[in-house]
Design goal:
Layout lengths: L3 E3 L9 H11 L3 E4 L1 H6 L2 H10 L3 E6 L2 H6 L1 H11 L3 E4 L11 H14 L1 H5 L3 E5 L14 H6 L5 E5 H6 L4 H7 L4 E6 L1 E2 L11 E2 L8 H8 L6 E4 L7 H12 L3
Helix pairs in contact: 1-12
Organism: Psychromarinibacter halotolerans
InterPro entries: IolE/XylAMocC-like, Xyl_isomerase-like_sf, Xyl_isomerase-like_TIM-brl
GO molecular function, one term: isomerase activity
Length: 248
């Protein structure tokens, strides 16, 4: 049976202690951290809270700048929390307008700054949004060019690929050998959930999750991370999404 993780960014507007207690009570066993969390929380205290709620944090998001400028701190956090995978989740909006050469260079930069993480025995890679599928001066997409930069793993955000106009099954087939984790999220039907930026609880939107999960399970993907970018009620999202995911 698959253990589903929970991206704590989904509950960023709520007290961390309350969120971890809620997730443990719902039956989650894993969470995924994000940069703002590591900037605010004492890592030792965070580890104790995770342990106290029966949770682990096998994966985490760290900014490109932190991985580049504070690799020792990244490794310290990852070691204390027992992480297995470290992912850069995005670049800023001003960095998302690149030509093919710019995206290829980003891939090379990621490969270079990620080497200390990989040398420490951890998986290192990239987490996509939709901007990596924009049309550029190349037959290849920005995501292709990023991944060509070196031995980078992919945490595939399936719903963002759909927002980017892609068939996620094509990308799962193309980069299945690179997949280490996936974000499990859902898209509301047009005109619905507008107060939640158009996202839906997993299993309550338009994504064909039974088919997608079947494809993901054929890859080396090890972690399946629930995420909602703007839930009005994170507890509702966590509860309904886990119930739906357990049927997949």
């Amino acid at each position: 049976m698959t253990d589903f993780s929970y991206q704590l960014y989904s509950s960023r507007h709520h007290p961390l202690s309350d969120t971890l207690k809620m997730l443990g009570e719902l039956g989650y066993t894993q969470v995924e951290g994000y940069g703002g969390l590591f900037a605010e929380a004492d890592v030792g205290d965070l580890k104790a809270e995770l342990d106290g709620n029966g949770l682990t944090m096998p994966t985490g998001h760290f900014s490109l700048e932190m991985v580049r400028d504070e690799p020792g701190r990244v490794l310290e956090i990852a070691t204390v929390l027992g992480m297995k995978g470290v992912f850069v989740p995005a670049v800023g909006p001003e960095e998302r307008v690149k030509d093919a050469a710019g995206w290829a260079e980003l891939g090379r930069v990621l490969a270079r700054i990620g080497k200390p993480v990989q040398d420490a025995g951890l998986t290192f890679g990239w987490h996509n949004h939709a901007f990596e599928f924009a049309e550029i001066d190349s037959a290849e997409t920005p995501l292709d060019l990023i991944l060509q930069g070196g031995p980078l793993a992919l945490e595939f955000d399936v719903a963002w690929a759909v927002v980017g106009g892609q068939d996620p099954l094509d990308w799962i087939e193309k980069y299945g050998d690179r997949l280490y984790a996936a974000h499990i999220k859902d898209i509301a039907p047009d005109g619905e959930c507008e107060d939640e930026d158009g996202w839906a609880d997993v299993g309550h939107g338009t994504m064909d999750w039974p088919t997608i999960m079947t494809a993901l399970r054929r890859t080396p993907c090890q972690y399946f991370v629930m995420e909602h970018d703007n839930p009005s009620d994170p507890a509702r999202f966590a509860r309904r999404s886990l119930a739906a995911a357990k049927t997949l």
